[in-house]
Amino acid sequence: MGHTLFIADLHLCPEEPAITAGFLHFLQHDAREADALYILGDLFEAWIGDDDPVPLHAQIAAALKALKQHGVALYFIHGNRDFLLGYHFAAASGMTLLPEEQVLTLYGQRVLILHGDTLCTDDEGYQRFRRKVHQRWLQKLFLALPLRLRQRIARRMRAGSQSANQHKSAAIMDVNPQAVKETLRRHHVLLMIHGHTHRPAVHSLEIDQQPAQRFVLGAWHTEGSMIRVSAQGAELIHFPFCG
After folding, report:
1. What is the CATH number of the domain that holds 28?
2. Distance CA 216, CA 195 (A)
3. pLDDT (tens digit, 9 = 90+) per residue, 179-238?
4. Contact indicator for 128, 164 with CB cutoff of 8 Å
């Protein structure tokens, strides 16, 4: 039976080897049974350029490329942590880069996928920051800086982000219900899948008197999280890292 898998918010980094091991196990087992794997952002905890020589990046690229060579199609939507991930790494991984919102037709149903940060419109400070760093000229300028300087800037920005988030309410950092409905209406879709909020759940709602669903992926902290879509529908699944 054909099915497609979705994951997000792994936040891979050298300091969390258990998560890396869990992801590699997932790529070698569950993912190999899928028609396609969609990674909906924040695969990495941070990304300062495809030229960053962190050994973890090459390891993950090789594992993804092996999955692609096994016959599983791979797609990636940028997250708020790895929005600078570029075509060089995508090519090395065998992934196709997608726009920030993408409508798929899977097994007869239309599905809207996105990272999810654009739905958090109550967090006005973050949305201002997002608009700024998504300017292409600024990204090109940053990527042209020496690697060591980029690393220093990234550390400073991450510390500032952590400090700011400590003073924000949980509600502000979650999605705005009206933004969800407007996004579904704009794409004429009744099923949405996203990550970002680290609040795995299946939400039911109504769009113009029609039943709709919003599936939210969990972050990979102590276990894996995926959504499986098949002809039978969508399912949110949690699983141990290695078995």
Report:
1. 3.60.21.10
2. 5
3. 999 999 999 999 999 999 999 999 999 999 999 999 999 999 999 999 999 999 999 999
4. no
Render 36-53 in DSSP notation, one character per residue.
Answer: EEEE-S-SBS--S-TT--
DSSP state of 12: B
Residues 25 and 95 in one domain: yes
* 61 shares its domain with 8: yes
Give the sheet arrangement for strand 101-106, strand by strand.
101-106, 109-114, 191-194, 210-216, 201-207
Quick: pLDDT tens for 60-73: 999 999 999 999 99
Neighbour order of strands in the sheet with 233-239: 95-97, 73-76, 36-39, 3-7, 224-230, 233-239
User: 119-173, pLDDT tens digit by residue?
Assistant: 999 999 889 999 999 999 999 999 999 999 998 988 888 776 666 666 566 667 7
Full domain range(s) for residue 157: 124-167
- Which DSSP state fits 218? P
